[in-house]
Amino acid sequence: MTIDDRLSTLEALWSAWAQHGRAMTEDQWRQPTRLGDWDIRSLYAHVASWPEILAGVTGRVRDAEPVAPTAAALLRYINAPGGLAHSERNRVAENARADGARQSTAQLIDAFAGTGSRAIAAARQLGPVVVDYFGALLPLAEAVSIGIVEATVHLLDLQRALGREPDVPAGGLAHTTAVLVEMAPAVDFIEAATGRSTEALFPLLS
Description:
The protein has eleven helices and three strands; from the N terminus they run H-H-H-H-E-H-H-H-H-E-E-H-H-H. The chain is mainly α. The chain has a three-stranded antiparallel beta sheet.
């Protein structure tokens, strides 16, 4: 996918998040999810931080070679045993709960409908540049890929919590699947997918 394709996919995913936010009742916002003690509001607040993240990285363009060439490479590093996905898990959860309590429903929805739309427009203007993504130099297109994975995986969490059948934009599903496959060691993935290995391969992503 080109960066424009990825931005269009992310735009469709964030539109779906905004639509869910507008449609949910107060009781639904308080429903539990399959993510430990997160309710839907905490989950929504966690994902709603991503439009601001994209807005931030569009302001941190760097004239340098990327340290992490792909989203899969960076996510593989973060999710390795002892990686940030594990060491920062409690802090991320606390921030999600705090953000959900601090922000109004309208603010949470506007993160996607307002901030998200502006961040995507800014990213389109930049094109294929390298950005500072939390201290890692990463192609902007690959940073967008991480946003797609986040929005897709958690949209499934949201829809499951609401008791609905998955209804995720096809581009999000396809791109997330491709990133996850790239994260896996090729031989291990092929043998696990074809029933030729009992070695534990999953989860690839926390």
